[in-house]
């Protein structure tokens, strides 16, 4: 159960803030991510910059947790869950309610498809 929770939490983290970097902003000042899960969600340049910073910080902290040999496996799992929760809160603070709803809906569909393929 813990492993599944971690996998789902990691999926949310990578799924909700993974998007392509754009070399020049679109004319509408909106940036459409290239990640398949986010094909219907656009982020402003400011949102994209903030989300990229959150993602980079989360990755650095995740790497530190994984490489910390003084922690037990359970402690690492617990710290990763806390990190993912924190990252989710930070990301949601950047996103509008509509964007959050769109991403939640898309994540649900992706999980349903993944579960259907596994069984």
TrEMBL record:
Residues 1-20 form the signal peptide. The keyword NADP does not apply. Residues 21-32, 94-105 have a biased composition (Polar residues). Residues 21-42, 94-119 are annotated as: Disordered. It comes from the Bacteria. Keywords: Signal. This is DUF4890 domain-containing protein.
